Amino acid sequence: MLVLQLILVWKCLLIQLAACSSSKERTHVDLAMSIDEYYDTVNSKISYTMVEFTTPWCHHCKKLKPNFLKLSKMYENDTTVPPVKFLEVNCEVFGTTICRDMPGFPMIYLIQPRVKPLILPKSETSVPFWRKLWTKIRNRIEDPMWQLDKDRIINYNGKREAIPMKKFIESVRAKDALVERVNNVLNDKFECSQDDEPCQLGKRYVLENLDKLSPKQLGQERLKLESIIKNAGEKEDDAIKVAIELIKFKLQILNHFDKSNEEQINVYDEL
Ligand SMILES: *[C@@H]1O[C@H](CO)[C@@H](O)[C@H](O)[C@H]1NC(C)=O
Q: Which residues line ligand 1 (CB under 6 A)?
């Protein structure tokens, strides 16, 4: 126990007293206490991470902090999957590591859940002793786990207020969910669950319509769907709204279906 406490105190001294004393209020935004913790969080496979990179001396950071906290509180009862975690990184502490390439502060990133495995160095058994030693020393400076693929980072540049930030998170999450749905529909190996009607409908749409259309007919189908969406505009009626969402879903499927066909054509061109 005592050892643990000592470690904690030591950490607090390292990361500034302010961070530790305010830990009681920080029930919604975690403060990154170590580089390991930061990379563990942003490399999660199951959640988004919304990160604020701040410094104690930056004026706009001070203004952002309460809004970021307010934002995180809006998610306390959120049950949508994948969930969103909130993290603050003090760039005065991690200036030369986590925050190395940042142009200014505050920065706000939304980091998508990791889908690809981390690329870790192979453990070689026949490596000479001195080389192993060197790798060990080097890894203490630059741990191979400290990596984050840039295509998962979405930089937020909008208003630093809770509502716009929430809208941003929701739009990213909705878009990602749609992409996943479309991919599932187009994946022959994926089976829709019993109660997932849009998925089943999408699969039928591919089998009964898209598979049978020529490239020219696919183009016509696209124009048809696009004009329905355009003419619908903003309708109040809930039933119509649902129908339009379905048409949009079909259009997404069609666009991705077309893309995979195009890729095939390119492959053939090269042969
Ligand atoms: C979350 O749920 C608790 C308990 O029901 C409630 O007190 C709180 O206001 C809710 N928070 C939000 C943001 O809805």
A: 73-74, 76-77
